[in-house]
Amino acid sequence: MRKILRKLAWVFITIIGILLLFIAISFINHRIQLNKESAMLSPIGTMVNVNNHQMHVYTEGSGTKTLVFMSGGGTASPVLDFKGLYSKLSDHYKIAVVEKAGYGYSDTAAVSRDIDTILEETRTALSLAGIQGPYILFPHSMSGIEALYWAQKYPAEVSCIIGLDPAVPAAYENYPLPSDAMMSLTSFGARIGFTRFFPAIANSSAAIHENLLSEQEKKMYRAIFYQKTQTSNMMDEVRMIRDNAKKVEEGGVPNVPMYFFISDGKEVPLDDWRDLLVTYVGAANKGKYMVLDCGHYIHDHEPGMIAEESAKFIEGL
């Protein structure tokens, strides 16, 4: 019996040793690659100090109307993710992309992810970057909640909302959120560089998959992805989203024009996703929607059509 236990103990120790060795090799390789990629991680926009951490704001175009693009939860590089769409609008409008704490070129910071803090940081970042309202908001996915709250709390700052498969409050009543254990495991894997052994994960980004970026921009996206996957801020957003959505739901449907572009719903783990969005925008003043036959990152799948429809809607207000 003792011999069997000793053998089992050695097997266990060997497995643990191999696992620790793999983690060490992965981490060392990750640090080496991060050092090589550092040249690609220089911000392409303006860095501003908000709540004692740096936030990145990218702008282009010089029109009289300002479009603010707001990323969905967990999107590693909002600036590059939205490029396919905003590049088709910046000839006629000023565009801005605010990267929240833990995203893109912005710092990962110890800041609350309650809806008020998120919104105030976005507004402050825009102000410090010299971008004044009113704004036309382009929220994707989870940022739909922030955009709706913005219109509720500061209606004079929001001309309209053009939703890119945006979340609405009711969606989070039954939305299957990932557990803390799953998020922590994913975050740990990213921090030790485990994701580098599976390049298909980074390459599965819709912006890369749809070939909307140059080869250099694809390299930049991957470099940011390996640095900003499942950050602490992203995880805190998930932990707070039900409370944030409830607060927005209590505020009612804001009195601003809305145009929702809605995906086929197949990439969202909620059977009634499309119905919830259609119902919400149907209750809006000057509400309009279009259901598209494409995935959740609709701005990457149908940038040309969305740009054209958005411009028509904006100019018709």
TrEMBL record:
AB hydrolase-1 domain span: 67-217
Superkingdom in the source lineage: Bacteria
Residue stretches spanning the membrane: 7-28
Keywords annotated in UniProt: Hydrolase, Membrane, Transmembrane, Transmembrane helix
UniProt-listed InterPro entries: AB_hydrolase_1, AB_hydrolase_fold
Keyword Nucleotide-binding set for record: no
Alphabetized GO MF terms: hydrolase activity
Keyword hit for Electron transport: no
Protein name from the UniProt record: Alpha/beta hydrolase
